[in-house]
From TrEMBL:
The lineage of its organism: Eukaryota, Viridiplantae, Streptophyta, Embryophyta, Tracheophyta. Residues 55-84 are annotated as: Disordered. Residues 66-84 have a biased composition (Low complexity). It comes from Sorghum bicolor (Sorghum). Pathway: Protein modification; protein glycosylation. This is Hexosyltransferase. Its cofactor is Mn(2+).
Length: 374
């Protein structure tokens, strides 16, 4: 290094603590540090950004472009201080924008009526539906699944149900005595109407309500959520009643006005609100819940848009003879009912290839490969 450079750096003259050798060593060390940071480990800055919240955060927590906006707000020169390269990096790291929530994006709340003691069944259903949502992201955006009880009276069950509510956030405990055909369904619909009415306008201003449809389902029903959503997408959003219509013939049922089978049926949001405000529904709660829901709508002249999904919704056949509501599996199934035990669930899930995503390499899963569905 020349003596003039020493002078510019203030390192020459008597009493200077640094010699030319010292300065050369400092420059060599700085060069090595720059080589390590920018050439050997160029991604260290990205890792730091990820743990600081600038990486793959959820679109619910962070909107695309907020990093750039924050930088512009804190910079004395505004957004113009961001270089083209930095903008490109920020765009690459930002999460993809969520799809617009407009009237074409169907939203469904499914309330599965069950009992506090049936924990194993709830965990099975969580596995089944979370895997469907994982494989079909539109399902995750469009469907909420809740497990519905009336008041929990056992202290032990109360503790365990509370743990589930904290862990999974999918529990609804209604203010009623536990029952099947004495008002639980009425309480479910009326509670949902009050709990979710208008709540969605804060998050989706273009929508008038949280859900387009509310579905009551049994815990022995297997729903194929992508097929359900696709089917509902083409249905009316008002005055709509959706399910497997009964009676489906004149031989297996006594004469009764039409209703949708309790295996799983949906009402459009306006009908859910009507149930909550109806004196007729409030007075007449004691009776087979699916028949009585149809009865309310029939007597009030409601549900002019009715969707009978036979043969895509049906009971498990087993050794029973075929009927208009019971038959073997079909590929375009929406729902299978009467899955009363694990053997029936396993047979059904195998037919629909629910374990297709299981890794077949690595030697960790020595399981037989399920037979392919026809």
């Amino acid at each position: 290094m020349s003596s003039s450079l020493y002078k510019q750096m203030g390192l020459s003259g008597a009493g200077s603590p640094l010699t030319g050798r010292h300065v050369a060593l400092l420059i060599l060390g700085a060069g090595f540090l720059a080589l390590t940071v920018f050439v050997v480990h160029p991604n260290e800055f990205e890792i730091q950004s990820f743990f600081a919240g600038g990486g793959s955060s959820s679109s619910c927590d962070r909107r695309p472009g907020t990093d750039t906006a924050a930088a512009a707000a804190t910079s004395p020169h505004g957004a113009t201080t961001t270089t083209t390269t930095e903008k490109e990096l920020a765009a690459a790291r930002a999460p993809a924008p969520a799809p617009d929530d407009d009237d074409d994006d169907v939203r469904v709340l499914i309330g599965i009526q069950t009992l506090p003691s049936k924990r194993a069944r709830r965990h099975l259903l969580r596995d089944v539906y979370s895997l469907q949502a994982q494989e079909h992201p539109s399902v995750a955006r469009g469907v909420d699944v809740r497990f519905v009880f009336c008041n929990v009276t056992s202290p032990d069950d109360a503790v365990l149900v509370a743990l589930e509510a904290i862990r999974y956030g999918d529990i609804m405990v209604l203010d009623c005595a536990e029952n099947m055909d004495n008002g639980k369904t009425y309480t479910f619909f009326s509670t949902v109407a009050r709990a979710f009415s208008g709540s969605d306008r804060r998050r989706r201003p273009r929508r008038r309500y949280e859900y387009d449809y509310v579905m009551k389902a049994d815990d022995d029903t297997y729903l194929r959520l992508p097929a359900l959503v696709a089917s509902l997408r083409g249905a009316a959003r008002e005055d709509a009643y959706y399910g497997l219509q009964m009676p489906c013939d004149t031989e297996n049922f006594y004469p009764f006005p039409p209703f949708m089978s309790g295996m799983g049926y949906a009402l459009s949001w306006d009908l859910v609100q009507w149930v909550a405000s109806s004196d007729l529904a409030r007075r007449e709660q004691d009776g087979p819940e699916d028949m009585w829901t149809g009865r309310w709508l029939n007597l009030a002249g409601k549900a002019k848009n009715r969707y009978d999904n036979a043969p895509r919704m049906y009971n498990y056949k087993g050794a029973s003879p075929d009927s208009c509501f019971r038959h073997g599996f079909v590929p375009d199934t929406i729902a299978v009912h009467m899955l009363k035990d694990d053997a029936r669930w396993a047979e059904t899930l195998a037919y629909f290839n629910a374990t297709a995503s299981l890794p077949r390499s690595g030697g960790l899963y020595h399981l037989p490969v399920p037979a392919a569905s026809p």
